[in-house]
Specification:
By secondary structure, this protein is an alpha/beta fold. It is built from nine helices and 13 strands. The strands form four sheets. It has a seven-stranded mixed beta sheet, with helices on both faces.
């Protein structure tokens, strides 16, 4: 396992057991740093203040209004990516001209940031309503959006288990003790595309956030992974052993590191550079 890298704005995120006991205190203490980081990335300070004061239900990024979801999940993703720099690890920050593949695009928060930095972004999101928001939020930057779940091998339509918070929808059925009641929102059938299809054209950065199905995705991806120069992926320990996943990527010809950006939770980040 590689060394741990802690982004400068990292705070403890939600885990299966709940949030860290002093999360709220640290959240308040780091607010100004997060705001400064977000504004530097392109967020409107006026929209931040309006949202904070309850005068607005949206945040603005480089002139694009991003509505908050009723359950505040969109705000949490914005905090993670735009304001805490969750993916801003050295060597993995998208550069002008990069081709970036975004698996698990959600409403487009990562795609918007990457594209605003000059990257050409292709984003995949399986949940229909979320896909529509992804498409609207990113159209200013001509992000290429696809309504599909990315899987290891071609499988036709697949079942997506819908989480109450919609940011945690997963191709994996909930297991006993893993909060299965949160998936009472139901199951939808969605299109799928294989990793080989996604990486038919090489990319400079492959970003993956697919709520546990990353283990199957990387186990079956095979030589198609070699078409990515860099990989950054969320790893959810409830779905498997992070070291096993790292082994899949390493066997495909990458130098791999695992990071713990939010100490005390089961969430980690995998970064890999093609050898």
């Amino acid at each position: 396992m590689g060394k741990t890298y802690l982004p400068p704005l990292a705070l403890v995120r939600e885990s299966a057991a709940g949030e860290d006991a002093d999360f709220n205190e640290r959240f308040r203490r780091e607010r100004l740093k997060r705001w400064a980081y977000g504004v530097r990335n392109g967020m409107s300070l006026l929209s931040l203040m309006g949202f904070r004061l309850g005068l607005s239900d949206s945040l603005t990024f480089q002139g694009v209004r991003v509505p908050a979801s009723d359950n505040q999940v969109t705000c949490r993703i914005i905090e993670d990516i735009w304001m805490r720099g969750e993916y801003d690890l050295p060597g993995f920050i998208p550069q002008p001209g990069w081709r970036v593949v975004d698996i698990g695009g959600n409403v487009g928060i990562f795609a918007m940031l990457a594209a605003s930095r000059g990257a050409r972004v292709i984003s995949y999101e399986p949940f229909p309503e979320t896909y529509e928001r992804l498409r609207v939020n990113t159209r200013r930057w001509d992000v290429q959006c696809h309504h599909a779940a990315v899987v290891g091998r071609a499988a036709g339509p697949v079942r997506l288990f819908v989480h109450q918070r919609h940011t945690r929808n997963s191709l994996l059925p909930p297991e006993p003790g893993q909060g299965e009641e949160a998936f009472a929102a139901g199951i939808v059938e969605v299109p799928s595309v294989s990793m080989a299809g996604v990486l038919a054209t090489p990319c400079d950065l492959l970003k993956v956030d697919c709520e546990g199905s990353e283990f199957d995705l990387f186990a079956q991806a095979g030589d198609s992974l070699r078409h990515a120069s860099r990989i950054i992926a969320e790893v959810h320990a409830h779905a498997g052993d992070p070291d096993t996943l790292a082994g899949y990527v390493r066997d495909s010809g990458f130098a791999v590191e695992l990071h713990a950006p939010y100490p005390g939770t089961s969430f980690s980040l995998l970064t890999a550079v093609r050898r």
